[in-house]
Design the sequence.
């Protein structure tokens, strides 16, 4: 019955989603080209407020735990598990005060209204997963960017999203490069729960009545311990809080 009800609600949701992306594309362009980074960042925040709000029609609700422990005025490396595309607007909106930027696959950098524009102009980097040299170079660029500007890089060390909520093994290369070239950063483990249920039937229809949770764990200063220890602690903190 729930799946049957989801068909008309998913249609309405996708109409709202598409309209939001189309409306905010020129808004982003104007903000970036006429007023600079701060105005563009504010437009992206409002865009993601609406992207999150659009999911309310599906009965989606959100909970963010421990947002107050995020350090301010320092670069952050946010390492999270990855369950669906809905992770991204959730992080951007609820963690907006730390200016999250993404290590994203290169395919998202073209032909998607609003999303592609933000990825290309908002401080994120695009990686070609078939080209390790390009990927590591782009991640290095991201690390240097957050080190200078005291912003945040978001990386999903699993590399690809889980379709069942069960986490895959974490890869260390991207996180290691970020730590190396942003030595004053703090690594912030973040656990995402129930996002995968949004797409449990695929991209259509969408899951109903889910409660997405972001759990922010204790940040760790990169300079305080060896990378191997940071990596182990980060993966452990993220994985132990995943609810299957």
Sequence:
């Amino acid at each position: 019955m729930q799946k049957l009800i989801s068909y008309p609600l998913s249609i309405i949701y996708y109409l709202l989603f598409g309209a939001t992306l189309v409306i905010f594309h020129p808004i982003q362009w104007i903000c970036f080209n006429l007023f600079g980074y701060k105005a563009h960042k504010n437009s992206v925040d409002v865009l993601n407020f609406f992207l999150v709000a659009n999911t309310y029609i599906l009965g989606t609700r959100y909970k963010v735990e421990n947002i107050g422990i995020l350090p301010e005025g320092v670069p952050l490396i946010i390492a999270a598990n990855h369950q669906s595309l809905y992770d991204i607007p959730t992080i951007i909106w609820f963690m907006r005060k730390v200016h999250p930027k993404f290590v994203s696959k290169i395919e998202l950098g073209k032909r998607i209204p609003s999303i592609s524009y933000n990825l290309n102009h908002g401080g994120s980097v695009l990686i070609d997963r078939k080209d390790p040299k390009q990927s590591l170079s782009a991640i290095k660029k991201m690390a240097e960017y957050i080190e200078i500007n005291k912003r945040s890089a978001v990386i999903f060390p699993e590399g690809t999203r889980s379709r069942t909520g069960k986490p895959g093994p974490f890869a260390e290369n991207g996180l290691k490069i970020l730590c190396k070239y942003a030595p004053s950063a703090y690594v912030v483990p973040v656990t995402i729960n129930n996002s995968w249920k949004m797409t449990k039937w695929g991209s259509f229809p969408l899951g109903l009545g889910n409660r997405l949770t972001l759990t922010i764990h204790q940040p760790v200063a990169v300079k305080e311990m060896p990378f191997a220890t940071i990596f182990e602690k980060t993966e452990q903190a993220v994985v132990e809080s995943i609810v299957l």
Notes: The helical segments are 2-35, 37-54, 87-94, 115-121, 132-149, 173-181, 227-240. Residues 224 and 230 are 9 Å apart (CA to CA).
